[in-house]
Amino acid sequence: MASAQRPSDAADLGPVSVGEFDSEDHFAMAASLADQLEEGWKAARDDLRAFKPPVDRPDGVVVCGMGGSAIGADVVRVCMPGLTVPFEVVRAYDLPAWVSPRTLVVAVSYSGNTEETLACADDAFGRGCRPVCVATGGALGALARKRDRPLVTVPPGMQPRAALGYLATSLAATLDWAGLVGEFAPQVAEAAEIVRSMAAELHPAVPDEANPAKPLARRLHGHVALIYGAGVTAPAARRWKGQINENGKAPAFFAEFPELNHNEIVGWTGDPALARTMHVVLLVDPWASERIARRIDYTAEHLSGRTAGVDVVTAAGESPFARVCSVITMGDFVSLYLAVLSGVDPTPVAAIEELKRHLRS
Ligand code: F6R
Fold first, then answer.
1. Which superfamily, per CATH, for 33-182?
2. Which CATH class is domain 15-24+188-342?
3. CA separation (Å) from 320 to 67, 182, 260?
């Protein structure tokens, strides 16, 4: 998209024609989250119906995946407060030492071809586990079929990170099928309703004054984004970071309360010029405890004036899934507007493809 004219930072972004930058209509994919949640939840339950859960009462849950295929696990993990067994998300080649044949292992790879995830799936079989696989197909799909393991299939043709709704609900349905969680359907319904109305509000045709994602993207543009979350918004902070990296093609980092109050806040004090190159976004959950709320208020106060800016994004909804999905939706749109401001196409991730090619060669 090198030939496209980059909108100036000062200009109103909307209504803006994003078509020239957005070769694969990533805005439409972001706006499809509500549909993905509803369809994914239903389709995954259908896919699993023919199988029996591998163990009666699993001693734990391990989800292995990378990047856009792993984030759904972080999201689902904070939405299952009733889960009484450990739930670990593994972004690596090996499973943790505690995994036993009684552990529910779920291998998630949108392409089905990610080497870390395939290595974990092999590791799981080697330890006598009977994993569930989530993929569009690829080598992981083939492995599931060959070993007669459940394969939850997600629709192909998207970027993995844009398929979050399918991937997250596939996992939620897997935990439901394994008898590990109570009724999740109401959380899916509330999340879908909220993100559907947010997608309409954040649409490119909606001008700045009515579209909070556009001015926020402009404030972030040209700065390093630091995204801070806590509890339910912690996975959203990780998601914002990944989306700003992959869609906005910009550096971004995330951290979590309360841990960041024990190190990160000191990092703001030594070099004022460096601190002013960064813009902080605080992802606030109105349902968070008073203790977390006080920390966030103090941190916002401490950082304003030191950094390029501090913005607060507040979760909407009641159920944890709706709250986390609402904050994610705002971040997804902000990352797309950042791409527009930089004049880059949000969809391709050439750096990742290049690395994968290099490792295969
Ligand atoms: C690309 C993306 C990446 C991939 C990751 C793993 O949109 O989000 O982070 O998710 O490289 O690939 P898959 O998801 O195919 O296992």
1. Glucose-6-phosphate isomerase like protein; domain 1 (3.40.50.10490)
2. alpha beta
3. 22, 14, 22
